[in-house]
Amino acid sequence: MATQIKVAALSGSLRRASYTTGLIRAAIDLSKGSIEGIEIEFIDISDLPMLNTDLENHGTYPPIVEAFRHKILQAHSVLFASPEYNYSISALLKNAIDWASRPPNVWAGKAAAIVSTAYDDFGGGRAQYHLRQIGVYLDLHFINKPEFFLNAYQPPRKFNKDGDLIDEEVKNNLKQVLLSLKAFTLRLQGKG
């Protein structure tokens, strides 16, 4: 039986029909259908309070933050789906990153991958590079290739009206990211 890796998937978008979150739904579908040995769980970060150290109490955090931190701690790797806002990641995603970095930093040593969507040809690349920069301090280990930048608004249509990924070529590109994340996670664990 193949080693099962657990991936925590976070979306930096709140929009109901978000293309960014649609990438996570597609990744989950791929993990259930065509990639053995990978289990992806979407972690909803929309209800986390804004980071405020006054909410910390002798090394403990509000229950919702503790639950979020526990899910990250239990995961072997992380899949970030990020929109690009003003050349950077969203406040929602940065807030979650900051909560999980409070002592002890639960990101440390994990493999990670980033997928992004945006309106321009770079497809969220600037946000990805900013997230990689943040990851250096957090001791996250991002896969280098393949990179996944998607201009979701350029024809042909890539998502349906509900934000579900419908483009087969893009799904295949996403699958390659997941396979790379799986292989890199196993290497970091000394199993690959």
Topology, element by element:
Blueprint: E1 5-11, H1 19-33, E2 38-42, H2 63-74, E3 77-83, H3 91-101, E4 111-118, H4 125-138, E5 141-142, E6 149-151, H5 168-188
Parallel strand pairs: 1-2, 1-3, 3-4, 4-5, 4-6
Helix pairs in contact: 1-5
Q: Would you give an account of this structure?
A:
The chain has 192 residues and is an alpha/beta fold. The chain has 5 helices and 6 strands, in the order E-H-E-H-E-H-E-H-E-E-H. The chain has helices at residues 19-33, 63-74, 91-101, 125-138, 168-188; strands at 5-11, 38-42, 77-83, 111-118, 141-142, 149-151. Strands 1, 2, 3, 4, 5 and 6 form a 6-stranded parallel β-sheet that branches. Strand 3, helix 3 (91-101) and strand 4 (111-118) form a beta-alpha-beta unit. The longest helix is centred in the last third of the chain and has 21 residues, at 168-188.
Strand coverage percent: 15-25%
**Count of beta strands:** 6
Residue runs with pLDDT of under 50 for 5 or more positions: none
The dominant shape is globular
Helix and strand pattern: EHEHEHEHEEH
Q: What percent of the residues sit in helical stretches (DSSP H or I)?
A: 25-40%
Q: N-to-C terminal Cα separation, in Å?
A: 14 Å
Q: What oligomeric state do the depicted chains represent? A: single chain
Helical segment count: 5
Summarize model confidence as the mean pLDDT: 94
Rg, Cα atoms, Å: 16 Å
Main sheet specs: 6 strands, parallel
Indicate the structural class.
alpha/beta
